[in-house]
Design goal:
Bound molecules: adenosine monophosphate
Largest sheet: 3 strands, mixed
CATH class: Alpha Beta
Order of helices and strands: HEHEEHHEEH
Structural class: alpha+beta
Mean pLDDT: 94
Strand order of the largest sheet: 1-2-3
Number of domains: 1
Number of helices: 5
Distance between the termini: 35 Å
Length: 147
């Protein structure tokens, strides 16, 4: 858990799915469905302008009775995006997800977007780490008592 998020990114890859702010909410959702992702980053001239997630579809679109074809994603997205540095540890990221009540964190280094971490990525990493630790302990125990 004391591992930097850059290690997880190395395993996951740097792909960050993004769209332009002028696209409609309908098109943004179509892209999220096509890619099977729960959040999409909005880039304006290459700069991080906002984030739009499935929770926004639930609350700010469907819940608010907005026509997804008539409204641009830039009008609905969250503009004040919380980001993390690649040095942030997995433990710190897990705490941020709980504290900030969000499930997606873009990773930014020297002003450029180098990845996106979801709460699912963290759960998978922790589950894998526990599995590896259990395996290690099993081997240690079985090797520790020679017959
Ligand atoms: P999520 O749990 O990630 O689906 O997002 C819950 C709410 O937080 C939505 O309104 C998102 O637009 C917003 N949100 C998600 N990720 C971030 C982030 N990294 N920074 C700021 N807001 C976010």
């Amino acid at each position: 858990m004391n591992v930097p998020i850059s290690a997880l990114l190395q395993r996951k890859g740097p792909a960050v799915h993004s769209i332009a702010p002028h696209l409609s909410i309908f098109d943004a959702v179509a892209e999220m469905n096509r890619l099977r992702i729960g959040a999409i980053v909005i880039l304006d001239s290459g700069k991080l302008a906002g984030i739009f997630t499935e929770r926004d579809v639930l609350h700010r679109v469907v819940g608010a009775g907005i026509d997804p074809k008539a409204v641009r994603v830039s009008e609905i997205m969250t503009r004040n995006v919380l980001t993390i540095a690649p040095e942030t540890t997995i433990e710190e990221v897990a705490a941020l997800f709980t504290e900030k009540r969000c499930r997606h964190l873009p990773v930014v280094s020297n002003d450029s977007l180098i990845g996106l971490i979801s709460i699912g990525d963290i759960s998978r990493w922790v589950a894998d780490a526990h599995r590896a630790e259990a395996e290690h302990l099993k081997n240690y125990i079985s090797g520790g008592f020679p017959t």
